[in-house]
Amino acid sequence: MLESVNEAVALVSREQVRGASWSAETLAKAVIDDARSGRASCEQIYELEGVLMSANPTMGSIASLVWTLKEACMRDVPLDVAAEAFIEYMRVSKSEVASHARDLAKDAPITVMTLSYSTNVINVLLSLGPMLKKVYVLESLPGGEGRQAAAELRSRRVDVELLPDTAASGVIGLVDAVLIGADNVTLDGCVYNKLGSKNLAILAGYFGKPVVAAFEPYKISPEARCGGVRLLERSYQAEPWGEVTYKVFDELTRDLVDAVLSVRGLGDNTQPNLMALRKEFEEWMTRRLAGGRSA
After folding, report:
1. Which residues in the chain land under pLDDT 70?
2. For 20, what's the count of Cα atoms within 13 Å in the CB-facing half-sphere?
3. Which of 200, 196, 201, 216 is nearest to 274 (CA)?
4. Bridge partner list, 214
5. Most exposed of 2, 93, 149, 159 (fewest Cβ within 10 Å)?
6. Tally of structural domains, the chain
7. Among residues 5, 12, 6, which one has the least CA distance to residue 232?
8. The domain spanning residue 80 has which CATH number?
């Protein structure tokens, strides 16, 4: 029985604030625990794949964890070694994304609008240092993840203001760019991020403000295509109406995202660039697994 994995899947499926990076790391740590306890091995890889993907079918990070585990099994590398390598890449790539934060600011400090809670967005904003003038964070209802992001930025002495989602149109004229995270990215340029991202991107386009998505290469799904990603649904009670069901993620087509910020810095949201980023992840992981055939 995949005891730790099943517990982690239940935890990830309920989570409403932390996103793709946290989810994949939580699941990877559970794989390590089950593998070292003798509850998981490559003999169960297809069962493990189904269980892991059930945690959140929208997230490209989970699909990349599964890809890593399957690659490891083909190379006779133990699951715990593969999961550790994946966590290592997560750490390295997240740091590399943040290291390119200054690509967003040209000659003067910038004002940014964002929404929801993305560790990449937080790290990039903090890495801007004196080149960051102010941040506007949308509350991001119904989950309200933006509140956490705004509070964290405030605790780090960033000039930040939390706004109701519906107030974005009155403020976006003051910003230089919109910065969002990504839970999944397809090779044809679709970015999947928390509900509200599409409205914000459309608004930004109307006001002529660039939309930049910050993410690591392991969030790119090579098999997925725009329109073909299953979107997780949740519901809540809205009295006196009753239950409201909504899709947790928005799908932003390529025309809504002007650029991507990843391990190579600021780049185009085009298939060649996304393919190169994904290849970089796969090659890094392949090299790491090639030296990891230890029990």
Report:
1. 292-295
2. 34
3. 216
4. 261
5. 159
6. 2
7. 12
8. 1.20.120.420
C-beta separation of 165 from 138 below 8 A: yes
**The domain spanning residue 153 has which CATH number?**
3.40.50.10470
Any domain includes 10: yes
Distance from C-alpha of 92 to C-alpha of 207, rounded to nearest angstrom = 35
Where in the sequence is the domain holding 41, given as residue range(s)?
Answer: 3-96+279-290
- What is the pLDDT at residue 110? 98
- Alpha carbon of residue 120 to chain centroid: 8
SS3 for the chain is CCHHHHHHHHHHHHCCCCCHHHHHHHHHHHHHHHHHCCCCCHHHHHHHHHHHHHCCCCCHHHHHHHHHHHHHHHCCCCHHHHHHHHHHHHHHHHHHHHHCHHHHCCCCCEEEEEECCCHHHHHHHHHHHHHEEEEEEECCCCCCHHHHHHHHHHHCCCCEEEECHHHHHHHHHHCCEEEECCCEEECCCCEEEECCHHHHHHHHHHCCCCEEEECCHHHEECCCCCCCCCCCEEEEEECCCEEEEEECEEEECHHHCCEEEECCEEEECCHHHHHHHHHHHHHHHHHHHHCCCCC
146 and 130 assigned to the same domain = yes
0.90 exceeded by the pTM? yes
Distance, CA of 104 to CA of 30 (rounded, Å): 36
pLDDT at residue 294, rounded to an integer: 47
Q: Give pLDDT, residue 292.
A: 63
pLDDT digits (tens, 9 = 90+) for 136-163: 999 999 999 999 999 999 999 999 999 9
